[in-house]
Amino acid sequence: MSGGWIALIVVIALVVIIGGWLWATYNGLVRLRVRVDEAWSDITVQLKRRADLIPNIIETVKGYASHEREVFERVTSARSETISAQSPEQAAVAESHLQGALKSLFAVAEAYPDLKANQNFLHLQQELVDTEDKIQASRRFYNGGVRELNTKIQTFPTNLIAGPFGFTAREFFEVADPSAIAEPPRVQF
């Protein structure tokens, strides 16, 4: 074999290795991006589930405390804000508003002993607690995916192909006002 053939084989081998690395890196970034999108979808599903529970809770409480109109309006407004949130940042702001409104709603409920014993209300409370747990788990899964994707996009040598192929860092789902969620709404009496 002549030196020209050896050089050609070396060049072909390098092209195959670099091509394989590009292929594997690109597909890894796509998998991470899809995982983050899936996790965001999970969060929106849980937020929708909670938003669907809230009108039932409001109606149950209204039957006992019809004069607490301002509280009901705040909860309804916060619920609408949560449903319309399109990004993690918007969802975080809506979360703090909803948490505050729910605390007010449950504070009203505590003043009515018959309501606290109502089986429908107790069931709705348990559903809300379950949903809050699922939202928290979905948030952790989403933030874990964002962490992996952002790390991959920013580390060398992956960053050399992430930018040109349109992979961008995602924002974490962080609550805008941490004091609003320092404690979850108290739903057990």
Broad CATH class: Mainly Alpha
Number of helical segments? 6
Care to count the β-strands?
0
Low-confidence spans: none
Radius of gyration: 25 Å
Global structural class: mainly alpha
Identify the overall geometry: rod-shaped
Report the biggest beta sheet as strand number plus sense, adding barrel if it closes.
Answer: none
- Compute the average pLDDT: 85
Explain how this protein is built.
- The model has no long low-confidence stretch (mean pLDDT 85).
- It is built from six helices and no strands.
- The longest helix is centred in the N-terminal third of the chain and has 60 residues, at 3-62.
- It has helices at 3-62, 69-84, 88-110, 113-117, 119-154, 159-162.
- The radius of gyration is 25 Å and the shape is rod-shaped.
- The chain has one domain (3-181): Up-down Bundle (de novo design (two linked rop proteins)), CATH 1.20.1440.
- It has 189 residues and is an all-alpha fold.
What does this entry show, briefly?
The protein has 189 residues and is mainly α. The protein is 76% helix and 0% strand. It has one domain: de novo design (two linked rop proteins), CATH 1.20.1440.20.
